[in-house]
Amino acid sequence: MKPLTCFVCCFFILSMSPLLSQTNYDESKVPSFEVPDPLMTFKGKKIKTVKKWEKTRRPELFHFFENNVYGKIPKTLKIDSYTILEQDDNAFNGKAKRKQVELSFKNNGKTLRYTILLYLPKNKVKAPVFLGYNFYGNHTITEDKAVFISSAWANNNESFGIENNTLTEVSRGKRTNRWAVEKILDAGYGLATIYYGEVDPDKNDFTDGIHSLLYQQDQNHPKPDEWGSIAAWSWGMVRAVDYFEKDPDIDASKVIAFGHSRLGKTSLWAGVMDKRFAGVISNDSGCGGAAMSKRKFGETLAVINDRFPHWFCDNFNEYNENEEALPVDQHQLLALIAPRPLYVASAQEDQWADPRGEFLSAHYATQVYHLYDKEGIETMEMPKVNEPIHNTVSYHIRTGKHDVTDYDWENYIKWANAYVK
Ligand code: GTR
C-alpha cells in the first residue's frame, strides 16, 4: 500500500471507530488503579514462600489466565511422527547445520503438519536454541534457497508480494532484518523457527489449523474457556520442545522462547504453560502480552478483541471496556515465568504497545523473582532509551519502531549468556 493511501485509510478507520479514536497516549490520563498483588491469593492470603507460591498462588493465577484470557487446550495431543525433510551440514556460509523437520499430528481423522527450520552452530555438540515463530514463512527469514516455502494460508502483503493468501519465491529473504541468524550462530546458539500459519492460520476461522483436530463431535468453535489462536500457537512451540528432546544436536534444557508482537504474546504464554522453556523473550508484545491492561494506554482490550476476535478465548470479552473488573493483570502473567530468566523489550515509537506498561509489568513481576532470590527490574523509573537493565528479569526500550532489530538480538544474546544457565 502506498504511504498516502495508508495514511488516508488510517485516518478513515480512526475517525470511523469510536474505540480507536479514544486511544489514550497521554500518561496523565492513565486511570489510577490498584495493581493486583501477585503474592496475595484471590482469598486474600499473603504468600511468603516459594512453596506456597508454587502450590497455591501460581496454580490459581495460571488457571485464571487459562480460563479467561488465552483459553485452555481441550486435551493433550502429542507428536504422531516427525520427519527430517532435509539436512545440510554446511549451511549458512559453512557456519551451520541446517535441518528442516516436519512434525505431524493426527486426531479426528485429520492431520496437521508444521515444519521447523533449524540453524545450529556447527562446532557445538548440543546447542542451546532460540525458538520463535515467523509471520510470513521460514523462507522469509533468510536468503537461503534451500528453505522450503510453506503452502499454508498467509495474510496478503503487497510489499512482500503475497497475493491470494499464498507464499511464493517473491518473499524469500524479505524478513532477514528481523533475524540476526549470523550473530546467533556466532554466539553459539541455534535458531529454530516455524511459520505460525501452519499451526493455525491467523484469521477468525476455527475450522482450520490445530483447533479442528481437538473438537468434540459436532463442535466447530472453541468453547468460551477454550483456546484461541495465541494459545494454539503457544501449543505449537511446546510441541517443538518435545521434538528438541529427541534431537541429539539440541540442548533441550536450554530452549529460549522468543516472539515479536502477537508472537511475543505467544512466547509468553508458551513460557508460562511449559517450564521446560529455560528463558522467555517478549519483543514489543503489548496488549495481552507484557503490557498492563488496566492502564488502558495505546491498544485496549476492547480494541484487540474487536480486531482480532480469534486471538484470545471468548471469556476475555467480558473485560472489554471493563478492565476494572479484571482480578489480574499482565505482570502476574510474567510472574508465572519465575524464576526463569525473562526479557521484556519495547520500542520508543511503539506507543500502541505501551512501553511504560510493559516496563511496569516487568517491575511488578519482580517481587515473585525475589522469592527465589533472583533480581529483576527493581526500579519504577524507566531506563533511558538504549540503556538496557540486565538481570534475571531484563528490560530495554530502544529507539525506533515496532520491529525486531540487531540491537534487540545483541541484548538477548548477552542476557542469555549471563542468565540462561
Ligand atoms: C497489531 C495488534 C498488536 C500486535 C501487532 C502485531 O495490529 O494491535 O496487538 O500484536 O498487531 O502482532 O503485529
Automatic annotation (TrEMBL):
Name the chain's protein. Answer: 4-O-methyl-glucuronoyl methylesterase-like domain-containing protein
Is Transferase set as a keyword in this record? Answer: no
Q: State the Pfam families in the record.
A: GCE_fung (PF22244)
Which keywords, in A-to-Z order, does the entry hold? Hydrolase, Serine esterase, Signal
The leader peptide range reads 1-21
Species of origin: Arenibacter echinorum
- Domain 4-O-methyl-glucuronoyl methylesterase-like residue range list: 225-370
Q: Name one GO molecular function term.
A: carboxylic ester hydrolase activity
What InterPro entries does the database record attribute to this sequence?
Answer: AB_hydrolase_fold (IPR029058), GCE-like_dom (IPR054579)
